[in-house]
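During the second half of the funding period, the structural biology subgroup turned its attention to how the target accommodates small molecules. The most pressing case was protoporphyrin IX containing FE, which had performed well in the primary screen but for which no bound structure existed. We therefore specified the complex as follows and requested a full 3D prediction, including the ligand pose.
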Amino acid sequence: MSDPSRKPPHLLWRWCAIGAAVALLAVAFAYVGGWLTPHRLTPQRIVDALQSGGVHPGFRRNHAKGVCVAGYFEGNGAASPYSKSIVFAAGRTPVVGRFALPGGNPYAPDGSVPIRSFALRFALANGQQWRTGMNSMPVFPVSTPEAFYEQLQASQPDPATGKPDPARIKAFFAAHPEAGAFLAWVKTAKPSASYATESYSALDAFYFIDAKGERHAVRWQVVPDAKDAAPGPAGDTDYLASDLRTRLAAGPQRWHLMVTLAAPGDPTNDATKVWPNDRTTIDAGTLVIESEQPQESGACRDINYDPTVLPDGIEVSDDPLLAARSAAYASSYLRRTSEEAKLPGAARADTSKQEQP
Amino acid sequence: MNAPQAFHPLARLLHWTMALLILAMLFVGVGMVTTVSEKHQWLLALHRPLGAAIFVLALIRIGVRLRFKPPALPADMPALMQFVAHASHWVLYGLMLAMPLIGWAMLSAGGYPIMLGHAWHLPPIAPANGVLFAWLREAHGYLAYLFFLTILGHMGAALFHALIRRDEVFPSMTVGFPHQDAPAEPSRNIAPDESGRAAEATPPSA
Ligand code: HEM
Ligand code: HEM
């Protein structure tokens, strides 16, 4: 060992080596964190695009208008041969849910879109959870997060008119033929007068894992008992919440959880495609909704209905929307809870910058 | 009793294992929150159990640190440098414990199940509360940056000892000086071959 007081040879090179090692690690970190690749599609950019119509502090960045509900799921054992999750065994699991309208505007008129959504959190007796977000439509318009982002950009309000530019939207759909099934459905869809008369579908595929460890590709939807579907009344913009209140005052509302099993070859990675009608469908149990609460104070407010929060016995498929949803919902959740907490810089309004952190 | 000349082999093993794990964790963390690809899913699934493992290792490490006295810094180091060295070590120990606890508490506050595998999960350690979640989640992010900056400084300082000062500090955590609990006779020999125990320590990769 040399005497530390003696000047080492090649001192400058030694300093350079130290600087280079530190800089290399810092640059690698910055790269992984996306600071060097501003064009990478990040959850923050998706959520920025979702809130480009204006920030409504504390509200969800999508499906902003909604209402909390609570009840339980009564499993009947019929899905147990396919999934080992205890949620499907005969018995009750408490549920906190949320009905909503798609879109970032918490004051949107109920008749402005023909789609309603239903999100559920099952709190299993073993401490695990199952969260799902479902929409009242048969297919999703796009199959990838990139296309979803393009669609959001194409429907941004034009600064000149304050409205989306129809030409851009047309160009988007021309470039995305996979949206055909959705467009065909939406042409005839009518905004319903009630949340309680709609079927809601998870759209993305998942895997059920049975007790032997075998995987079964599935999709699920909830199908209502209430069948008096009618178009919403004209004039009133908030009829869904009052309809729900009236119905629940009269008694619980019920849905059946219908699980469809894929046949070999059915796509699990493409939410724009329906599976053929003849696939085996299991009635896995009854969802019973007993009460509703305003979303400002109800239990659903601080729940992130991340569709990848799953119990043992259900797993995500290779559908690329699922990871993107998980990441974007977390970003939206952080923004809205930060706004509740009044943390500085919480809204992060409409910037294409990275969220810090 | 004099301080030993080098870190206990167990301390060295823990040091280099945790160095790799913590750096991996920081990269996994910033990577997973900025991607919408499937990587987001498996990185997140890795992040939670790895963080829990770091917490357990940090507890063991602090036990080892208290049981086996570490070598003193070279006496000729300026007082300010000594202070910064000690302070940064406490920051590192603090963050090793705090980061996993904050991660665990923030998922509790967010009402999430804290899954470490498909079926295995930890109980919540904080009440479900959105405001608390936001504070903890922001703290988890900012402290992660502080952690990374402290590690960069730590690494720069270690290399400064190794390449510029060329004192005993770097070998004391790598392959130098067989550990002695008893006062050692002053030895300047850093050859790694004379003790089986020294060979247990992982050599530095850089
Ligand atoms: C890449 C595609 C998608 C993105 C980026 C996206 C984004 C979002 C975001 C940011 C939220 C707000 C989350 C919160 O703050 O808690 C949300 C809510 C929701 N999304 Fe998506 N979404 C996507 C696809 C889908 C699909 C395929 C469905 C399927 C059915 C869906 C159903 C829902 C529902 C039901 C909600 C409302 C949840 C609630 O009531 O809290 N989304 N979405
Ligand atoms: C030494 C331990 C840990 C380190 C160094 C670490 C580091 C990080 C980093 C760098 C991020 C990204 C922060 C950002 O850019 O905003 C992050 C996020 C996260 N961490 Fe950790 N973490 C640790 C332990 C844990 C533990 C034990 C858990 C849970 C049990 C956890 C849960 C999370 C979650 C859920 C996120 C992302 C949340 C979101 O998507 O918004 N972390 N962590």
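Two results from this model are relevant to the next phase. DSSP finds seven helices and ten strands in chain A. The mean pLDDT of chain A is 93.
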